[in-house]
Design brief:
The complex is a heterodimer of chains A (222) and B (261). By secondary structure, chain A is an all-alpha fold. Chain A is 81% helix and 0% strand. In chain A, helix 1 packs parallel to helix 5 and helix 1 crosses helix 10. Chain B has eleven helices and ten strands. About 3% of the residues of chain B have low confidence. The chains are: A mainly alpha (222), B alpha/beta (261). The interface between A and B is large, with 44 and 35 residues.
Chain lengths: 222, 261
């Protein structure tokens, strides 16, 4: 069992959440309550990472931020290291790949809040912030949690982008899913098996959690 | 809502625990060494010896030479690169990414391999393969991708020399690296393959089948070159020298490489 790789994976999952959750809540809510011209296009763009092969994302990130591109050289001059093949680069790629997993459940959550509930809250003299924090977020909270759990789990399972953008650097970009591949290449099926079982257990636990969560909510809502 | 609250607390606990354990041990990180996949076992052993006798550590990352070259060009933080050929290190040298043109540290050998239970019989002239091809019961045959892996190019040369290349092409399954080709060749997905001698001798490989060493003259020499990159520090330079030591040479020979005089 490669504990360093597990830690990198957990870090990546947590970091992706820290970046995406606030953005997702803001943008999901925005999409839920506003209608505007071109909304369909925006929603499609949000969903694109869901159907895009990870190699497409990897390709564009490497071409844009690689050491041979002007943007990549500028980044390297400022940060002292290239964005690809670093944890930061991995985080960046992971945040993009996970946008639909965060935004979509949250959008559904806010959409499920009846408009008259918001109106009633406004009538009671609550400020927009109070309405948001005391009424909307608690009502949408199960969806937000679902989004968080799905994103975390999906990040742990990410492989293509990680290998392409991150390489396979121990302690930096070698996640558990890449470590399995690495061990397979070394004919070390035992370690690969242990790590595969770990990821399988996490995936099952995650999906059980989200299912339980949505059951509970539908029961509460009647 | 108490279960929900428990979930929330759990989620924050995960986030907090990982954020609290910063990944910044980077300060005294061991230099990263990019190495061709066929070195997986030999170099791991050399690095262990190096650590024991010199008290310094290097971090090994294995992959296809072409992939690693591409990563170095794109800014991957390696200090030393041990390739499975000469072309890729030369390419990096021409791009001004290396200290100098480096040295040849090993010469690889190719074997034809058949897993247990395969209808393929192996021999250095590939006669068994030719018979199997003619009988039409060939199935899949694994080699490394000639586009990115030097052992793939050597395999292509051998197949061409025996006039089998055109006929066998539809049956080829290409590994991204020689290790992946070996993976294909051993897991029963293929009747066999042309793989690196070093991999067949590898401990994890065990006795998964039979093999025959292909004569060196049948393919362009698999000279493997290593180069120090511009970013190389003192430890990487010491490891570079160590790979050329008698101890390292003995390990390389044991793993199916010839070493330059």
């Amino acid at each position: 069992m490669d504990w360093t790789a597990l830690r990198v994976s957990l870090w990546l999952g947590a970091g992706t959440l820290v970046i995406l959750l606030p953005l997702g809540i803001w943008f999901g809510r925005f999409l839920a309550i506003r209608t505007f011209r071109g909304k369909l296009l925006v929603e499609a763009l949000v969903t694109v990472p869901l159907v895009l092969p990870p190699t497409v994302l990897g390709f564009y990130l490497l071409v844009t931020f690689g050491a041979r591109s002007p943007l990549g050289q500028a980044f390297q001059a400022v940060a002292g290291q290239a964005l690809p093949f670093s944890f930061a680069g991995l985080l960046f790629a992971s945040a993009i790949a996970n946008i639909p997993f965060v935004v979509q459940p949250i959008q559904r959550g806010f959409e499920a809040i009846p408009a008259n509930v918001r109106d009633a809250a406004a009538c009671c003299g609550l400020t927009p912030w109070q309405r948001f924090l005391r009424i909307e977020v608690p009502l949408a909270w199960p969806s937000i949690l679902t989004a968080a759990i799905l994103t975390f789990a999906h990040t742990l399972g990410e492989f293509g982008v990680v290998l392409m953008v991150g390489g396979n650097l121990p302690g930096e970009t070698r996640t558990l899913s890449v470590a399995i591949y690495d061990r397979m290449q070394a004919f070390d099926d035992r370690s690969a098996g242990v790590m595969a079982a770990t990821l399988l257990a996490i995936a099952v636990a995650t999906l059980t959690a989200t299912t339980a969560l949505s059951r509970r909510v539908s029961r509460q809502r009647g | 809502m108490s279960a929900l609250r428990a979930w929330t607390v759990g989620l924050f606990a995960i986030v907090a625990s990982t954020v609290a354990a910063p990944a910044q041990e980077a300060a005294q990180r061991a230099p990263r060494v990019a190495a061709a996949a066929n070195l997986n076992f030999a170099l791991t052993e050399i690095a262990k010896q190096f650590e024991r006798s010199e008290g310094a550590r290097v971090e090994l990352v294995f992959g296809a030479s072409g992939t690693l070259t591409r990563q170095i060009q794109d800014g991957a933080p390696f200090e030393l690169f041990l390739a499975a050929d000469e072309e890729f290190p030369n390419q990096l040298a021409a791009a001004g990414l290396t200290r100098d043109t480096g040295v040849v540290y090993a010469v690889g050998e190719l074997v034809i391999f058949a897993p247990k239970g395969s209808p393929l019989t192996v021999d250095e002239r590939l006669e068994g393969l030719e018979r199997l091809l003619k009988s039409g019961k060939i199935g899949r045959f694994a080699i490394a991708n000639p586009e990115v892996a030097p052992y793939g190019r050597a395999a292509e040369a051998v197949l061409r020399k025996h006039g089998l290349w055109e006929t066998i092409r539809p049956n080829l399954v290409l590994g991204d690296s020689i290790t992946q080709a070996a993976q294909f060749a051993t897991t029963g997905n293929a009747v066999g393959g042309l793989v690196a001698y070093s991999l067949v001798l590898a401990p994890g490989f065990g006795n998964r089948g039979t093999y025959a060493v292909i004569p060196q003259a049948d393919h362009p020499p698999l000279r493997q070159r290593m180069v120090l990159l511009k970013t190389a520090g003192p430890v990487a330079a010491r490891f570079f020298a160590y790979v050329r030591s008698e101890t390292a040479h003995a390990i390389l020979r044991k793993h199916g490489f010839a070493v330059p005089q």
